[in-house]
Amino acid sequence: NLIFSKPGTRVVEILTKGHERRCYWTLSAELGHDYRFYLGTPKFPERKGEPDIEVEPSRFCKSLEASMKKI
User: Fold this and answer.
1) Does an H or E element contain 58, and which?
2) How far is CA 49 from CA 13, 15, 37, 60, in A?
3) In this structure, are residues 31 and 3 in contact, taking their beta carbons and an 8 Å threshold?
4) Pairing of strands 53-54, 34-42
5) Under 8 Å CB-to-CB from 5, ≥6 apart: which residues?
6) How confident is the prediction along the chain (71 residues), in pLDDT tens digits per residue?
7) What pTM was estimated for this model as a whole?
8) How many helices (H) and strands (E) does the chain have?
9) Between 35 and which of 20, 22, 28, 52 could a Cys-Cys bridge form, CB atoms 3.0 to 4.6 Å apart?
């Protein structure tokens, strides 16, 4: 969906430490999007592969609001 978005689109990716990827960041940079990320917590850290991610809703919302004000 990023490919079809207008330049300047705000992109927020939720990640966990150790599972960072550069593909969405790189794609966003090439397309002129405003990329941000938020670090969540793996729900089942003992599992291998892509984690289920938990975020604390009020902290996530505050972070999202703060990042949107910077634009």
Assistant:
1) helix 57-69
2) 17, 13, 20, 24
3) yes
4) antiparallel
5) 11, 31, 33
6) 899 999 999 999 999 887 778 899 999 999 999 999 999 998 887 888 788 899 999 999 998 888 777 65
7) 0.78
8) 2, 3
9) 28
